[in-house]
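Reviewers asked in the last cycle whether our approach scales beyond single polypeptides. To address this, we selected a multi-component target totalling 649 residues and predicted its structure end to end. The input consisted of the following lines:
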Amino acid sequence: MSLSKNASADGKTLTIQIKGKFDFNLVQSFRQAYAEVGNQTEKVVVDLRDTDYMDSSALGMLLNMKKTLGDSVSSIQISNCRPQLKKILQISRFDKKFDID
Amino acid sequence: MLILVVDDQPLNCRLLQTMLEHQHYEVLVANNGQEALDLLQDHDVDIVLLDVMMPVMDGFETAPKIKEHAGDVYLPVIFITALEDHASFEKCLHVGGDDFIHKPFDRIILSAKIRAHARTRKLSKEAYEQKKQLEYHYNQIEREHEIVEHIFRNALSGQEDFADLCDYHLSPASMFNGDMFLMAKSPIGGFYCLLGDFTGHGLAAAVGALPASKIFYTMVQKGMAVNDIAAELNSSLNTLLPGHMFCAAAIVEISSSGRNVSAWLGGFPDIYLIDSDGQMLKTIESQHMSLGILDEDEFERNTLHFEVEVGTRIVMATDGIIESEAPDGTLFGEQRLIDVLSCKVDISTRDIIQQVREYSGHKEQQDDLSIAIINCLPDCSTEALPPEYSTLPFNISISLNAEQMRYTDPVLELVDILSKVEGLHAHRSNVFLLLSEAYNNSLDHGVLGLKSDLKNQDDGFIEYYHQRARALENLKDALIIINVRFSPEEYRIIFNICDSGNGFDQNTNTQHQSQQEHGRGVELLSEIAQSVTYNQVGNEVELVYSLR
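The resulting structure, written as structure tokens, was:
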């Protein structure tokens, strides 16, 4: 389980990648990952390509991020979900609040 | 230096032999053409002095046979002649004679002629040796190329043909031009392409392709991001290749929706995004140095991300295209490529290659034209067949005391164990969710007695996190029992989690509240599980999960 972040070459996209499981144990590092979002960041991508597991606390953390960042970014995208994780996001209607790819 | 004197007159023979031996040549003597040919079979003769008129076989008949015997190496035949008429000279030359010496013999002229022809013979011998060596090496290289091509064909052709997603052209000898094109799909449906161009030509340029392709396929199989793939390729090539060799590369991933593109470009010509009419949407320049140059700590992982309309096409081509030359030396260039792209709807790589070839006047040597066009389309690969399940029913029961709750992560360990049961791996995310929700509910609210409404306040998550850690630290005399029953006949897994907490009364606020605040968790449980049942007290929950 780990978290890494990466700014795109033009600095407009921040990508947060979560490996293994996305649950309450990540609460601090996840918050830190988006705490430094600057003015030039237009988009945040939460890349779940390496995420096997998530639970409702991960959903809570995503909502918290959305609340914190508010309108300072134009979109928050949750990308590369495995089918079962996508279903979890759909059950929770996250597709209404996030751009799920 | 061995000289063969062929003359039927013993006096001439002796005279020549004496003169030549005096100049430190070895001498053989034959009395007619047939004897001479017999001697040639057994001796490596360097020069033949040949009389014209002889019994058994005369000089005119012998000369062509000597030349035939000599084959590719120059064996000088010098006619010994008393004849003076031009017709005879001409005949001597016609049958293969290289020179004449006249009777009576002049020692100095003889010596000069022998030396001149000896030199030519020596050069011819050397050239012949070199030619043999060249032939040997040429055959060797041909053979090695065949072997390498075979290996590469097998290594690189493991890839599927994604005809809908990708149209590409690689010249037949691309391997030895250092060009490489790889493509693969990740388990979550992302489509990855790599077009690479190693420096140099020949076998040396090809060697990097083997490790590169292996890394690419392995990492795509794991669904890694393009910058992770680039970093791994870079460090591998940096270690493997000599300093002056590297690989310009474009690595592109199209997400399974076909709407998002990530790209890492190093030392590569611009790539283009076009619509189906070929109109230019976006030009993307390389942001990085080629692979195999920078050390790991200098390597730049920044990736380009952009959203595209479904149906957008990505064009990438190695510099062979834009550097193609017209007969007058002008380059094809980027602008011509851009113009060609928009010259018709749904242009194919074959159209482009044809135009480049026409431009360059079909010059054969320009054979490193590599180009790929990728279509951004949603993943439509069919779902995998339903898995086979283990037929062995089992129960797992785990009792955790306070100490174990503090220091273990039973959910993940249990999921790992269950994932190893045949057929259950595909369900691991759901199994994790059910166990995690139920266990954390038992731990947080049952055993630790935390109130989840805290999470709704600003920064409540962090505060909750700290409270939870403190409560766990002080926890004594607690118990959580997790029971997992796998029932293959019913295609079910039944989870039962109970705790030593007080539970909750269905009529009190606590339960009501807890359901509200935990709306998401409860909703998820009831959607993922077939049934969710609490006991009367509220400290035990049974979840039935259907594998179908």
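The longest helix of chain B spans residues 107-156. We regard this as preliminary and will revisit it once experimental data from Aim 1 are available.
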